[in-house]
Design brief:
Helix content of chain A: 40-55%
GO molecular function, one term (chains A, B, C, D): oxidoreductase activity
Organism (chains A, B, C, D): Lingula anatina
Protein name (chains A, B, C, D): Dehydrogenase/reductase SDR family member 11-like isoform X2
Oligomer: homotetramer
Shape of chain A: globular
CATH superfamily of chain A: NAD(P)-binding Rossmann-like Domain
Number of helices of chain A: 5
CATH class of chain A: Alpha Beta
Largest sheet of chain A: 4 strands, parallel
CATH topology of chain A: Rossmann fold
Family (chains A, B, C, D): Belongs to the short-chain dehydrogenases/reductases (SDR) family.
Radius of gyration of chain A: 17 Å
Keywords (chains A, B, C, D): Oxidoreductase
Amino acid sequence: MKCDLTKTEEIESMFQKIKEQLGGVDVCVNNAGVDLFLDCKTGSLSDTKTMYELNVFAAITVSQLTIQSIQERNLNDGHIINMSSVCESTVHEDSSCHMYTPTKCALKAFTEGLRHELRKEKTKIRTTMISPGLVDTPQARADMDDNLFCPETCLQPDDVAAAVTFALSAPPCVNVRHICLHAIHDSF
Amino acid sequence: MKCDLTKTEEIESMFQKIKEQLGGVDVCVNNAGVDLFLDCKTGSLSDTKTMYELNVFAAITVSQLTIQSIQERNLNDGHIINMSSVCESTVHEDSSCHMYTPTKCALKAFTEGLRHELRKEKTKIRTTMISPGLVDTPQARADMDDNLFCPETCLQPDDVAAAVTFALSAPPCVNVRHICLHAIHDSF
Amino acid sequence: MKCDLTKTEEIESMFQKIKEQLGGVDVCVNNAGVDLFLDCKTGSLSDTKTMYELNVFAAITVSQLTIQSIQERNLNDGHIINMSSVCESTVHEDSSCHMYTPTKCALKAFTEGLRHELRKEKTKIRTTMISPGLVDTPQARADMDDNLFCPETCLQPDDVAAAVTFALSAPPCVNVRHICLHAIHDSF
Amino acid sequence: MKCDLTKTEEIESMFQKIKEQLGGVDVCVNNAGVDLFLDCKTGSLSDTKTMYELNVFAAITVSQLTIQSIQERNLNDGHIINMSSVCESTVHEDSSCHMYTPTKCALKAFTEGLRHELRKEKTKIRTTMISPGLVDTPQARADMDDNLFCPETCLQPDDVAAAVTFALSAPPCVNVRHICLHAIHDSF
């Protein structure tokens, strides 16, 4: 199912279709994200907003609709997995991710807030944030210098998938709150 | 000078007027901010975006235009003061600020990124983040229960002003990076 | 092999025995730790030091001796896993862990420092910090009220073991830096 | 009054003398600290312990005795100021402070725990942590290369004193929780 995540209507209609075809959504993995390599001093506001649209607002909408879908079926469990980045742990001196990092810090705080709310309600819906380092994806290869992509400096997509699987496959009452992983010689 | 900070054009025209009338901007204090008391689970996206417009995007624009104004006059110093909140240090269990906290975490990371960039350029433009607890303002009184507003639980505007003055009046080579202050019995 | 980890000589002699019998140590899991439930205002210094002896100093010694053992055999990989606690992410209002939390914050910073040093040397020795919430152990049961020990509020030892296994079984160039996990209704 | 802060008995006898001569202690500034420039991989345990003795354990004892002195005179206010370091905010790649940073992280968590406890008791005793960057002191000059000591890269002792004064002179119900300051071109 294709969906432009920067358009709330498309997200809503995707959830509607899933409801009709599959009953609902129990687990979401907010993996989509974009880094436009802006610095804080000169990054244009419109590019900045594009990053927030996808990295923050789309993840909020998908998270909220997933919980709604779980609860309207009177279910008590499910899982929200938000993909952050190793950059959220430290604002790095290297400016290539300076305008991107705040979007991931916002997503982290959102995920934590959501976790507190779900616990207060005594639901068993779990929340996980995964903070990977650089991943060897076609997009990353297009953006960067090819010689960065050795195993010592970047993850493979399977490594991140393994983290998702680890969080999902924990016993139902175990909440894997956070996983940070990166290539052994990643510069973060 | 009045300015709707959620409208980039108004900010730009304000900076233009200041340039014509006063020469330029050396110091900005991004004090405007709004908490619409949304929780993460149900907060509407449009209200959420309103908070990001003022708390994040306006602060970015004002910071960028201030630096531009400093550097187009070939000056080397100036000061960006961004007003965060004590909530950025810990995502609190109390949901009344759950959707607001991520905006302040984003602002913090932006301010840190900017600081690294300004240092790399070897400018002496300083950046400060101030994280106050609850402040006794007309807006806060309108939003909340009156009996919260005793000196033990909330700051006076003057207390925050004193922090701004402290940061501004430090010797030119001293960067007060962060000040967190709150009433002695504030719940954070 | 039994070892009183608060005695450096016993740790050293344990490593000596392992060297003679098995060749050396490639992986250590610094799992031993103690919380004496002291508050910051009144906790005795001697009890406080007991916690640092085990939670910080023993973990430092074991980490250093493991790296030494790896490198004196001209190996390039290995794994240091330090067991922290969910409390390191936020100083909690509940005072029962106030004097314990700083020991885990120290261990976290030590682990991060070590990671930077090992990367600078271009070794492939990995470091992982695991921050579990309350775990249902005989020690914890002895310390606390029995009705805390339902699956919603505390982990089982196997849950923590699964996190260790996940970190260890990642591909050699993947460093799982941090895992935080806790029972779904743990109060942190 | 001279006192070897690594000896608890000397601290206790200093507090006794102050009690006899001046009545008691209302404010303490735990400024003493030592960085022995150890890295995490090879730093000796005995040097490491020396740093904890002064940076952590002495500060704990002085804080506890100050609060005791305040409360045994049935006073309700006072101030504990603990001197941390800018390094506590981020574990830096530069290894010269790797074994020192954890001591300051521990001190920060101790100060936060103490703050929660004092608030729960509804006292008005305030706690402040100050995190300065490199300061131009005789000790620092002895330890380091002379050309580091220009105003752009290090603070003067007066700059830190100004932060202490700012925290102390806030109105009684205002708690300045944290101040981080450093020279404009300090590398943190």
